[in-house]
Amino acid sequence: MALLRQIQSLTKVQRNTFSACFLGWTLDAFDFFLLTVCLRAIAADFHVGIKQIAESIFWTLVMRPVGALIFGAMAERFGRRPTLMVNVISFSVFELASAFAPGLHSFLVCRALFGIAMGGEWGVGAALAFETLPSEARGFFSGLLQEGYVVGSLLAAALYGLLFPHLHGSGMLTPWRVMFMIGALPAVLAFYLRVHVKESPAWLESREAGVAKKAFEWGALLQFLPSFLFLIVLMTAFTSFSHGTQDLYPTFLEHDRGFAAGNVGLIVVVGNVGALLGGICFGTLSEKIGRRKAIVCAALLAIPMVPLWAWSHTVVMMAVGGFLMQFMVQGAWGVIPAHLNELSPGPVRAVFPGLAYQLGNLLTSRNSVFQAAYAGRYSGGMLQMAMAGTVVVVAVVVAGVTMLGGEAKGSDLSGVG
């Protein structure tokens, strides 16, 4: 009921804008996670090992900051809406190109280019959404927007489970290639953006004020360098929080607990449901208690969940632990879209949040390697201690860094200031 009331309180323009931004992030994530569920099939098709294909995930993550900078700069100069249209078409085209890659090297190039497009969507979409939405509902929609990433993951897993086993083909129409062709369908969203979504009021005001053409310059970025560096540190902590609890968890369930693939899938899905609900709940809560307090509460509440999450032995208890852990982790994340946009100066709002976010992703792209190395050296290959220790340390760091920063809850994002 609360969800319906929040949505009904929006104007038609605001609903269309948020829907487009949410779908953009969801479909972006959907295209990314199609790769993760098809890794084994792609490796077999190219006659290489999983490790070689997994490099495509690394290159996607590495190139995301490039996309955040390129598309963010475009959004400052040409507007949020047309940039988002180009961005959606770009990641759809590179997803389709991946489907027709004849070999490993061309596939890696396509995934690197996809990473550029993927890196641009979050920052531009968030700027367009929060410069259009009313400030009093910002926390709720922040949580909902961020969890578009989780919805994208669930859609990819569902499509894989329902369709992939029934696909048969050869040559250029092997099952994974068909999946990637389906992944190009988000390009249709560009038409929705063109017809139903209006430009950000903040960007229109900047154009009328005569600053849109010179809105993004390196000097503007350097002017706010201390704030930018803080956001990078904050997002490095946050991406460590999410990657540290997600990337190796399925492997932990299979290797340390010996669960079958079906049970692993069930636990991961339950965890994703917890993530979705946690993001919305803590995003909404942040409107009442503030952004920083909501983040700190969610981060620190993840610590008491560690025993259930890492030391349980039954499928049911592991599912409960996964639900509660991701409820807290993504609860903290649910505040981030609004928090970062409120902390970002108007002239660089399309660049600041997205670039800081993606640089944090870059700095934590080897997180799973470090966890696995620790487990191999100190825990006999068992991941339990490495993952539990990551949660405790990173949760404290997230809470500490958050409290060291400022807060601008409810600030006016409708103008250029």
TrEMBL record:
It is a multi-pass membrane protein. Residues 17-407 form the Major facilitator superfamily (MFS) profile domain. The chain crosses the membrane at residues 21-44, 56-75, 82-100, 106-128, 140-164, 176-195, 216-238, 258-282, 294-311, 385-405. It is found in: Membrane. PROSITE patterns: MFS (PS50850), SUGAR_TRANSPORT_2 (PS00217). Keywords: Membrane, Transmembrane, Transmembrane helix. It holds the Pfam family Sugar_tr. SUPFAM superfamilies: MFS general substrate transporter. One of its GO terms (cellular component) is plasma membrane. Its main location: membrane. One of its GO terms (molecular function) is carboxylic acid transmembrane transporter activity. PANTHER family: CARBOXYLIC ACID TRANSPORTER PROTEIN HOMOLOG. This is SHS family lactate transporter-like MFS transporter.
